[in-house]
Amino acid sequence: MQKRFVSLWFRHLLTDWLTQQRPELEGIPVGLTVMERNRIILTAINNVAQNEGISVGMTAADAKAIIPDLKVLDAVPGQAEKILQAAGKWCIRYSPAVAVDLPDGLLMEVTGCTHLWGGEHTYLQNLLTALRQKGYRVRGALAGTTGTAWAIARYGKQASVITSGDHIKALYPLPPAALRLEPVTLERLHKLGFHTVQKLLSLPKPALWRRFGEHLLLRIDQATGLKDEPLQILHPPEPYQVRLPFLEPIRTRLAIEKAILQLLADLCQRLQKEGKGLRGAILKGYRVDGKSIQISIGTNKPTAKVANIFKLLELKISTIEPALGIELFILEAPKVEDCSPEQERLWKPDSCGLEDTGVAELLDRLTNKFGSNAINRYLPQERYWPEHAIRPAQSLDEKPATIWQTGKPRPMLLLPKPERIEVMALLPDNPPMLFIYKGERHVIKKADDAERIEREWWLEPGLHRDYYTVEDEQGRRYWLFRSGHYGQEETQWYIHGFFA
Amino acid sequence: MNNAKAEIISRLKTDILKWQGFVPPVADEAKGIGLGPLEASFPNGVFPVGAIHEMLCPTAEQAAATGGFLTGILSAMMMKGGACLWIGTNRKIFPPSLNYFETAADRLIFVDVNHEKDVLWATEEALKCEGLAAVVAEVREISFAQSRRLQLAVESSRVTGFILRNDLRKLTSTVCVARWQVKPLPSKTEDELPGVGFPRWQVELLRVKNGNPGTWQLEWFEGRFMPVDEQFNTIPSHERKAG
Fold first, then answer.
1. Other CB atoms closer than 10 Å to residue A349's CB: what's the count?
2. Are A414 and A386 in contact (CB under 8 A)?
3. Is residue B124 a contact partner of residue B131, using CB atoms and an 8 Å limit?
4. Mean pLDDT across chain B, nearest whole number?
5. Angle CA(B149)–CA(B91)–CA(A455) in degrees, nearest 5?
6. Of A17, A67, A366, B173, which sits most exposed with the smallest number of CB within 10 A?
7. Close Cβ partners of A306 (under 8 Å, ≥ 6 residues apart)
8. Which residue among B93, B131, B195 sits closest to A413, beta carbon to beta carbon?
9. DSSP string for B134-188
10. Roughly how many angstroms between the first and final C-alpha of chain B, as a whole number?
11. What domains appear along chain A, each with residue ranges and CATH number?
């Protein structure tokens, strides 16, 4: 396929942008200045100022002499690049390959994009109208090479869409400056009487090379298409990404579901072909009003099944606000892992456990509905302090690094925070005789000796705990502890758990 | 003649059981779940897996006793490396204690949700998942229609569900296959030695579909359920263990 490029030229980029931010500047002459060798030089002017006869490069004082009411503002260094990047990001709806072309333009590769807008003419018109509505005075051209598109956008007189064979002819009447040459070269060409590209191209190349050097030949080759020009693409496309633009913006749930299914079908087909499965997916929707929305999901195991991923996304469709309509969906898979399809075929329904794909899919659904905090699995940890005896597992297939402790018994239920109780104990180290918890008296009939658990003093300060397993007269079994030594002032009794 | 009649009746009985959603156990499930005499009160004398059980635990103490009894059952169900989901809004289960009941706590996945209605949603989703051994859900109440939904989910997946209900004031009827209540009993030690003995419970089968309700006293002894024999009240114990 023949490559096609669009070059956009923002004629008054900085001042147009400023006017958007400050509408009161509309219609009055504005100039932006920088300090250069003790002179204040104009670096950008708006169209009003230009029409009144001043130009970029004048000193501010001269300009003021011509237009006394010229509004002079300080230029912010690097501003142009920022604006161009933002504009380039906005242009992503027209083409995935957008590059910033400093100081005042954008270059886009639009190969295969234009038919979605019904042809190259309507595509370019659509793009330019949209940018003009945003307030930029912009010119654009569509051609088979970046050099030609650039030249026509800036110097072209007639057609702005150049068909692939005609680009050299289109360059002929333009001045040599259209070839993006250095000022020194341009000056020499001017002195020698080369006023059009046609004259320049009629000379043999070795002669040009001798007089003007390598750079001129490179620019000529780039304009005529003999050499490719690599674009510094603003968004390097995600390796696993599918796009679905709509002619009519969509708003209904049914339409969104259909769109997601189509995107998934495309993405999963590619994943399956490459033997990959996705671990996460991001669905971005670009709305008519310029905002973008996104939903994201994660999975516990790599998967490339449309039905599974759709089930996860389906839970979040209700959070999509289409507003006036969505005109473009992009589905990305930022995290992709190998998964062998053979493994799934071997799976037998009678093997159950954490390795089971059905369980992983179920947990994905639960995670995406309730958040990742909702799903907890615990592994033992070699620490005695009860609150620290377990740690959350990092992944579904993580195995315990140590065995579950089998020494002293632990209660079935553990209160999240120990609760204070009133206790009567006969002797300092005896288990309590009775305790009062939530207003109820529990007379203790049986009890075990204390188990002292020291606090992990290298991590946190505090008192140790003496734990007692006790059983009351009705057979109910509790886990009580006294913090600190008996008889000390800060000593306090707590209930911490219930035994089975 | 009489023989033929009895045969017809018994065949009809099994047919009725089938139509009511009770699936006869397959061969390897028939060895039981280790509940001893309790299992005789279920239809065909087998603890019904692939069904919904309901357990009442109004107090924290009973919840702890139920937890112990339940994990004892789960240990048999998860024997082959299966996983289990425990769904609730206010979880207090302490995983290190499960080891005492022969259950590997790292194969238990806790789902902590914020709302009561999410518990039932998650439970229904989980019960449809054939890869799980069992699903435990802690709920305050459950309506007849909700229990019916859960029953329909397990009928195709053959997962066993346990519903722990903690609000007995709204005790509605359900389609659950059995309703249990487990209460702690005072433990006994050998020769009246001091200290707390093995966990001992009074297990009541309040309602059972096509079976016989009853009450038993069980003790968890050396990794299995032991019926407490009132006459020989002492079970030889080498060291006391309560969990």
1. 11
2. yes
3. no
4. 84
5. 165
6. B173
7. A261, A264, A265, A268
8. B93
9. EEEEEES---HHHHHHHHHHHHHH--EEEEEE--GGG------SEEEEEEEE---
10. 56
11. 1-237 (3.30.70.270), 241-366 (3.30.1490.100), 376-407 (no CATH), 413-498 (no CATH)
Place of tokens 């006790």: A470
> Which residues of chain A have a pLDDT value below 50?
345-351
Beta pairing class for A390-392 and A413-420: unpaired
User: Are the C-beta atoms of B203 and B224 separated by less than 8 Å?
Assistant: no
Identify the pLDDT of residue B240. 43
User: In this complex, do A362 and B80 lie within 8 Å of one another by their Cβ atoms?
Assistant: no
Q: Do A500 and B61 touch (CB under 8 A)?
A: no
By the 8 A CB rule, do A145 and A224 touch? yes
Strands A432-437 and A492-498 turn out to be: unpaired
> Do the chains contact at B64 and A498, CB–CB below 8 Å?
yes
CB–CB of B87/B123 below 8 Å?
yes
Q: How far is CA A69 from the centre of its chain?
A: 45
Q: How far is B100 from chain A (nearest CA, A)?
A: 7
Name the DSSP letter for residue B214. E
What's the length of chain B?
A: 243
A324 at interface of B, judged by CB pairs closer than 8 A? no
Structure tokens that stand for A62 in this block:
């001269």
Q: For residues A324 and A293, give the distance between their C-alpha atoms in angstroms, rounded to a whole number.
A: 13
The sign of the dihedral angle between the CA atoms of B88, B90, B94, B100 is negative
CB distance A370–B122 less than 8 Å? yes
Q: Three-state DSSP class for A191? A: helix
Instruction: Give the Å distances, CA to CA, from A302 to A265, A271, A339.
Output: 16, 10, 6
Amino acid (1-letter code) at residue B230: E
Could you give the count of Cα atoms lying within 13 Å of A440 in the half-sphere of its Cβ? 8
Task: Tell if the CB–CB gap between B111 and A365 is shorter than 8 Å.
Answer: no
Q: Does B163 touch chain A (CB under 8 A)?
A: no
Touching check for A185 and chain B: CB below 8 Å?
no
pLDDT at residue B183 tops 50: yes
A19 in helix, strand or coil?
A: helix
- Asked if residue A139 lies in contact with residue A16, where contact means CB atoms within 8 angstroms, the answer is no
Cα Dmax for chain A:
115
* pLDDT one-digit tens code per residue, A285-330: 998 888 888 888 888 778 888 888 888 888 888 888 888 889 899 9
Residue whose structure tokens are 């490029």 = A5
Q: What is the DSSP letter of A248?
A: E
Q: Tell me: cis bond preceding A103? Omega within 30 of 0 counts.
A: yes
User: Any chain A CB within 8 A of the CB of B58?
Assistant: no
| Residue B43 DSSP class | G
Torsion of CA A175, A177, A179, A181, to 10 degrees: 150
- Superfamily assignment of B41-227 in CATH? P-loop containing nucleotide triphosphate hydrolases (3.40.50.300)
What phi-psi label fits residue A180: left (phi over 0), alpha (psi between -120 and 50 degrees) or beta? left
**Neighbour tally for A249: CB within 10 Å:** 17
ipTM of the complex: 0.83
Confidence bin at B203 (pLDDT 50/70/90): very high
In the chain, the amino acid numbered A155 is Y
- Among residues A325, A413, A416, which one has the least CA distance to residue B164? A413
Model pTM? Answer: 0.60
Q: Where are the domains of chain B?
A: 41-227
Q: Return phi, psi of residue B137, to 5°.
A: -125, 130
